[in-house]
């Protein structure tokens, strides 16, 4: 809860219980004159459009740094000069990155440039960047539980038609949130310059996104005769893709299934096809692109995955 974060900031916050604490009359009058709306008007006067305002369901570091940015550092008060998205979308520093082969986290230098439209990272400076990533296909999301670090980020981008995952973290909560919002600023700058006629309310949701569902499921192959194997699945609503990995922190997916529209012959159905035998009876759904029977995939998964897909896309 946010109250717990405020309790750790006694220099800027005072927390009292509505039921357990005594409220003096002068404090009640103060709250009447300086309530949430007044505080919002003062401390959120200049929140940039790309800056992510966390919700109650977001990870602790996002919520804590949002509160510190508002009340401790006063980053958004009216007297502050806001950076333009191009400047805010430029950032440089070291992050701990998980190695693709070694699986160990090692410090790597990252450079983000909204002006150039790329993010780069280096392993050995003289050899140039290890990767040059276009901001057009760049996405970032917090993955504290997945990475087993409170400040863990998952950065994704497309390379040679595949989704590439980078898993990084920083010891400083402020620094990792600064990286997160710098990438959002760079993405906002790209979208605003590429689609100048697009309304603001349509641009904001496209800056970055979280997977709408992730977790382990068991999967069989296209012949429906292979043994069910446990795989990690990620459902990407923006790309309409269901990706699956052998392990959650793999750099590349083992495969992916495009979830097309029903009018194109795609369908998500509850249950398993006849003839599929499993050791234990479990709920499942079938994902079957009818127009591409030769590349048909069948999955056994819990029914709430079907619900997630239906809520996001409906019958479209």
UniProtKB/TrEMBL annotation:
Residue span, PH domain: 88-188, 210-316
Cellular component terms per the entry's GO annotation: cytoplasm; plasma membrane
Listed Pfam families: ArfGap, PH
Keyword Zinc among record annotations: yes
Cross-referenced InterPro entries: Arf-GAP_dual-PH_domain (IPR052589), ARFGAP/RecO (IPR037278), ArfGAP_dom (IPR001164), ArfGAP_dom_sf (IPR038508), PH-like_dom_sf (IPR011993), PH1_ADAP (IPR037849), PH_domain (IPR001849)
Residue ranges occupied by any Arf-GAP domain in the UniProt entry: 1-84
Keyword Zinc-finger: yes
One GO molecular-function entry: GTPase activator activity
Main location per the UniProt record: cytoplasm
Gene3D superfamilies: Arf GTPase activating protein, Pleckstrin-homology domain (PH domain)/Phosphotyrosine-binding domain (PTB)
Entry keyword set: Cytoplasm, GTPase activation, Metal-binding, Repeat, Zinc, Zinc-finger
Subcellular location: Cytoplasm
Biological processes, Gene Ontology terms: heart development
Record-given protein name: ArfGAP with dual PH domains 2
Organism from which the protein derives: Meleagris gallopavo (Wild turkey)
Organism classification: Eukaryota, Metazoa, Chordata, Craniata, Vertebrata
């Amino acid at each position: 809860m946010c109250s717990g974060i405020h309790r750790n900031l006694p220099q800027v916050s005072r927390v009292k219980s509505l039921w357990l604490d005594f409220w003096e009359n002068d404090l009640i009058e103060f709250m009447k004159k300086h309530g949430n709306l007044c505080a919002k008007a003062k401390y959120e006067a200049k929140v940039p459009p790309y800056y992510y305002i966390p919700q109650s369901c977001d990870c602790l570091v996002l919520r804590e740094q949002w509160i510190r940015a508002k009340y401790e550092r006063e980053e958004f008060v009216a007297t502050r000069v806001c950076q333009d998205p191009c400047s805010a979308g430029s950032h440089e520093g070291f992050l701990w990155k998980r190695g693709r082969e070694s699986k160990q986290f090692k410090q790597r230098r990252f450079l983000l440039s909204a002006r150039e439209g790329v993010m780069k990272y280096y392993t050995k400076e003289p050899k140039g960047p290890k990767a040059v990533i276009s901001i057009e296909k760049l996405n970032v999301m917090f993955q504290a539980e997945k990475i087993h670090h409170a400040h863990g980020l998952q950065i994704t981008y497309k390379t040679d038609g595949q989704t590439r995952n980078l898993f990084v973290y920083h010891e400083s909560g402020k620094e990792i949130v600064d990286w997160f919002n710098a990438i959002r600023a760079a993405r906002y700058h790209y979208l605003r310059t590429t689609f100048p006629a697009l309304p603001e309310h349509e641009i904001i949701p496209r800056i970055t996104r979280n997977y709408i569902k992730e977790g382990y499921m068991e999967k069989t192959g296209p012949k429906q005769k292979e043994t069910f194997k446990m795989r990690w699945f990620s459902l990407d609503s923006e790309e309409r893709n269901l990706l699956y990995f052998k392990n959650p922190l793999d750099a590349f997916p083992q495969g992916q299934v495009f979830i097309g529209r029903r009018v194109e012959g795609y369908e998500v159905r509850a249950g398993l096809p006849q003839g599929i035998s499993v050791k234990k009876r479990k709920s499942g759904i079938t994902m079957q692109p009818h127009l591409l029977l030769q590349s048909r995939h069948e999955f056994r998964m819990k029914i709430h995955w079907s619900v997630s897909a239906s809520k996001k896309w409906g019958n479209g």
